[in-house]
Design goal:
Helix content is 44%, strand content 20%. The chain has 222 residues and is α/β, with parallel strands linked by helices. The strands form three sheets. It has a five-stranded parallel sheet with strand order 2-1-3-4-5, sandwiched between helices. A four-stranded antiparallel sheet has the order 6-7-8-9. The protein has a two-stranded antiparallel ribbon with strand order 10-11. The protein is elongated.
Length: 222
């Protein structure tokens, strides 16, 4: 995990960074608001700890711009202001959590870990992933090793079913029932044909083949 710390007080930043490093996280410290915004928008960070009182750009404005850009980066707000109104402003700006100074560094780490778990569950609900094959259930975008894969609607449905059942053998009759919801002639080769075309797109250019035939039973992905 890589944590972005936007904090102008060097001692506080070093204290926070040390606590995250003890639990195995990498950290990046930025001391002013404008540089912090650039890092939050473009950096490879899993979460951010953002102080409110910063030079050049305050923390609340950083959070507003990050959210306006569509980034779902988990953010915990640090502030010397511990009033209810201050907490509300921090959360309304788009912060995921709020911690008033002085704070327990152990509590800060625990809260960030909770945000990371929550973000992971949210991602899992919209993203299917098997090794380097990724399906976004919201955009319907499919990639393998970062390369986009163009699928026809029935190919997409078939792949989604296989990915949801990764590691399990699924029979051709089950695929007919669950993917197409049709009763085909038992001798039809519609499943074999679709699997063939899906393999051409998913596996042909890659050494590691993900879709396997289990002779006499069906197919398995993974």
């Amino acid at each position: 995990m890589n944590i972005l710390i936007i904090e102008d007080d060097t001692a506080t930043a070093e204290f926070v960074a040390g606590a995250f490093k003890q639990v195995g996280y990498a950290t990046m410290h930025v001391a002013d608001g404008e540089a912090g915004l650039a890092a939050a928008l473009h950096g490879p960070y899993d979460a951010a700890v953002v102080d409110i009182m910063l030079p050049r750009l305050d923390g609340l404005e950083i959070i507003r711009r990050v959210r306006a850009a569509g980034r779902a980066l988990p953010i915990i707000v640090l502030s010397a202001r511990g009033s209810v109104d201050a907490k509300i402003r921090g959360l309304e700006a788009g912060g995921d959590d709020y911690l008033a100074k002085p704070f327990s560094v152990a509590e800060l780490v625990a809260r960030v870990q909770a945000l990371l778990r929550r973000a992971s569950r949210a991602e899992e609900s919209t993203i299917l992933k098997v090794e380097d094959l990724v399906m976004d259930l919201v955009t319907h975008r499919v990639t393998r090793a970062g390369e986009p894969i163009d699928l026809q609607p029935l190919e997409y449905q078939l792949l989604e079913y296989l990915m949801r059942n990764r590691g399990r053998v699924v029979t051709r009759n089950t695929i007919l029932d669950r993917v197409w919801n049709y009763s085909f002639d038992p001798h039809t080769n519609v499943v074999e044909s679709r699997v063939y075309h899906l393999r051409e797109k998913i596996d042909r250019r890659f050494e590691r083949k993900l879709i396997r035939t289990v002779r006499g039973f069906g197919y398995v992905l993974g």
